[in-house]
Write the structure tokens for this entry.
Amino acid sequence: MVYLTRKAEFAASHYYHNPDLTPEENQRIFGKCNNPNGHGHNYTLEVTMRGEVAPDTGMVTDLDRLDRTVEERVLRRFDHQHLNFDEAFAGKTTTGENVVVLVWDLLEKAVPAGILQKIGLVETRDNYFEYAGPKGERVA
Amino acid sequence: MVYLTRKAEFAASHYYHNPDLTPEENQRIFGKCNNPNGHGHNYTLEVTMRGEVAPDTGMVTDLDRLDRTVEERVLRRFDHQHLNFDEAFAGKTTTGENVVVLVWDLLEKAVPAGILQKIGLVETRDNYFEYAGPKGERVA
Amino acid sequence: MVYLTRKAEFAASHYYHNPDLTPEENQRIFGKCNNPNGHGHNYTLEVTMRGEVAPDTGMVTDLDRLDRTVEERVLRRFDHQHLNFDEAFAGKTTTGENVVVLVWDLLEKAVPAGILQKIGLVETRDNYFEYAGPKGERVA
Amino acid sequence: MVYLTRKAEFAASHYYHNPDLTPEENQRIFGKCNNPNGHGHNYTLEVTMRGEVAPDTGMVTDLDRLDRTVEERVLRRFDHQHLNFDEAFAGKTTTGENVVVLVWDLLEKAVPAGILQKIGLVETRDNYFEYAGPKGERVA
Amino acid sequence: MVYLTRKAEFAASHYYHNPDLTPEENQRIFGKCNNPNGHGHNYTLEVTMRGEVAPDTGMVTDLDRLDRTVEERVLRRFDHQHLNFDEAFAGKTTTGENVVVLVWDLLEKAVPAGILQKIGLVETRDNYFEYAGPKGERVA
Amino acid sequence: MVYLTRKAEFAASHYYHNPDLTPEENQRIFGKCNNPNGHGHNYTLEVTMRGEVAPDTGMVTDLDRLDRTVEERVLRRFDHQHLNFDEAFAGKTTTGENVVVLVWDLLEKAVPAGILQKIGLVETRDNYFEYAGPKGERVA
């Protein structure tokens, strides 16, 4: 098993707000992230695939196809967008946690079964999120 | 003359739109940056100060005071905000070019005369802006 | 299970010396790190927490509280300090290995049970340490 | 168990070509990487060792010896070389996948048994490969 | 005057050899870089443009056009190539110094007069080259 | 004129203290940097040389000789040392400002006349110092 991680960047806006909470609760829990005008980040996405090394190519996956899949399913949808306007976040906050889970769900159904290992997301230089799927025992 | 550069980060939203242009022109010129829902970045601000080294402290400027000035004049104003909602950008697009010029103007009047050398701004990992003031002959 | 990693920096001095060894052994084993005047590093600490994503906040942990805990238990104690003067290192060398284990012990008792996943520590651009606790089967 | 990761860089050339495939297949599968003149990368190698912390040194391994081993077995062999000319790649493409497996094999037999945890390899700023050995259940 | 720096990466092979020198001289001067099989790098190119900020766009230059120019004149020519095979290096070594001068010459004739400020080139994590044109008084 | 910047790292301790000031003044001016036990940093040194490109080598300077000079004059003196114990800092604080000026003085007399352009020093991820000599008109 060799692991390949492919990175890509996207720039997006978001803000944190839960309509089931009062304005005061939203402010207390989310602080400056609750500003309804929104703020944004350069997100760095990390997609980790696993696989046996194919003897003829020396690769664990078709990298061009992976790039196209990430482009079509993730970058085209979120790059230069406001995450709160995406239907997938209806009823959910646009936290890094929810973003990695969503990206996992989008990619897991678009790549060969069992090959997606982990989604990582750098939100700021001090914040990093990872998700390895519902059965994903981690890792470290 | 020694030069000190101090970095700070802020996360903000923006989008590009000039109301004097038609929607088609806005789209042609600004492309994906014209999306009215906005998108965002982690901006890295670089403030460069110059000065003689003071013999008693070994410093060119009071770093704590510089940090407070940057915090009060720039970070508090732009961090976790939408730049297009800031009054300083009325009639202006929120490009990196306009942001560095604005930050220069905000800081130049708040620090001792002649000590501000340059404002740098990293917008994405591939985009970097610099401004050294109206008389600022650069530099390379 | 989603994993959140939070980074923080601290600057500290240290040197390696085991009083149970002869000066010659200390020099042979620790080399330039044995200089009793000490040297120092910018340490980057990485604290990884794991958890279910809370439906109301979309988060695995209260990030503000985590930041306060890291500040109170780790940064305030080690930032701009000489590690060899800290009582926790009595009888121990101040290696990256011992630092990550100590930070784990300090934080593990200060956060909700079972939520701390790993401590990482960047000591230089070429040296990185990780510890996932006494039961921590890694990982890779 | 504490994990120590040591980084090192080497600059090398390579290109992808499988002589068992037709020129058209090589071009289709490997694209611009198939150019027989070759291209190159600054590779960042990451060697992760695991171990108990020795009470007298506070270390999991002898770092100087590890550095010498990496220098002798890997850097001296691949730095400023063309990977396709190395006999270990006879019949194999010089992909990141095959490089991490080869480096694992070279180092695993040169360090104490059971102490090598993982080999990582940064090929470009967007491509990262990892291998944890034939029994290496990962990880994330 | 505002300065915009745009980065791009390319991966290329090269080696140093001057046919007017003896093999011994080549080896003495160029050392490991003289290996005729070549080695390679991930080069990071930095193109700095200067200009007044246009009131209607807030920009100093048309970034899309700049990207196309860099793609057509530089990346398409050097990415995934062996620099020694490029006709521009006939009779010249493929050092970072010669690469930045060549890229300046290629871009200076392809962009509006007077707008190109500097070419920067990161060759390895420890080597960086800059050229500001034949009249380019630097800078620091 | 082409500019070559060469980077090198060293790890050192220091603290700020001016014996001509009272303990209260030292504490007020230098804050946490005044702790007499010291703290430390991984310093990244940047040495920028300028020159015409030599036609036979394609280089502005002999890089191996530069590396040896930096090693002998700077790294061997400061790496894994406590800066306050160095005689050059007698009567001076060990600030980044004083370090870049000292390194300039050490290297300027050791390299061919007129070839040293600038010394840069990264002290922390947010602090950067530059000095271009007593006649050094900068730059930005």
Observations:
- DSSP finds three helices and five strands in chain F.
